[in-house]
Amino acid sequence: MKANKLNNNNDLTLEAWEKELEEEDKKKNFRNWFNKKFANGLLGIRTYNSYHLLTHPWLILFSWGEEFHWAWQRVFRGWDDRARWQFDMYIAKLISEIIPHYKTSIGIPDFLFAPYPHDENYNYSIEDQEDAKRRWHQILNDISEGFACYYSQITDLDGTKESIKFEKAFDLFRKHFTNFWD
Predict the structure, then answer these.
(1) Are 127 and 147 in contact (CB under 8 A)?
(2) How far apart are CA 7 and CA 14, in angstroms?
(3) Distance between terminal CA atoms of the chain?
(4) Which residues contact 142 (CB under 8 A, 6 or more apart)?
(5) Among candidate residues 114, 173, 163, the one with its CA nearest the CA of residue 142
(6) How far apart are CA 61 and CA 72, in angstroms?
(7) DSSP of the chain, one letter per residue?
(8) Distance CA 63, CA 61 (A)
(9) How many angstroms separate the CA atoms of 75 and 86, rounded?
(10) Backbone dihedral region of 44: left (phi > 0), alpha (psi from -120 to 50 degrees) or beta?
(11) Which residues contact 52 (CB under 8 A, 6 or more apart)?
(12) Over the stretch 112-150, which tens digit does the pLDDT of each residue have?
């Protein structure tokens, strides 16, 4: 270690340490090649970089054990312990992924047909049905996009455009909560 990398207490400075890491990453070595080759993880494990798993194979067994444990919990409880870690994010992700599937269902809530005329058997014209369906799909889009914005935010939402989208989505979700059926 060179003397200019040390501070007065003979400790490595943060800047020097970061520079050493950058220099190591620039080297063309097996570790960097392996991590680039398996950028999405090794054997389905994305918690660690691939080279670390190659040099620490017991972590693979540990990770698979965790996955098996969580799968067992999902089978018998319907959810696993990871749902409690960030419950708001877990629910936001579920809502943003499930709500768009209601577009493929046949049912449209009754309140969307209120402004349209109907006959004695409550039959509506095709145009009115299409308009009600379009409005229902817009509500579903707004809910899904708002919860997706919340899920994508790592920090607190603080009056940004995403925050306004989420607040609108949450209000729509609360208002139409009883209409999510198939």
Answers:
(1) no
(2) 10
(3) 67
(4) 165, 168, 169, 172
(5) 173
(6) 16
(7) --GGGB-TTSPBPHHHHHHHHHHHHHS--HHHHHHHHTTT-BTTB-SS-HHHHHH-THHHHHHHHHHHHHHHHHHHHSS-THHHHTHHHHHHHHHHHHGGGGGGSS---GGGGTTS---TT----HHHHHHHHHHHHHHHHHHHHHHHHHHH-SS---SSHHHHHHHHHHHHHHHTGGG---
(8) 5
(9) 20
(10) left
(11) 59
(12) 887 877 777 778 788 888 888 899 999 999 999 999 988
Beta bridge mates, 110: none
Task: Say how far apart CA 152 and CA 176 lie, in whole Å.
Answer: 23
Tell me how many degrees the CA angle 93-97-102 measures, rounded to the nearest 5.
140
Here the tokens at position 138 are 């817009």
**pLDDT tens string 30-66:** 777 777 777 766 666 666 677 777 777 787 778 788 8
The answer to whether the predicted template modeling score (pTM) of the entire model surpasses 0.70 is no
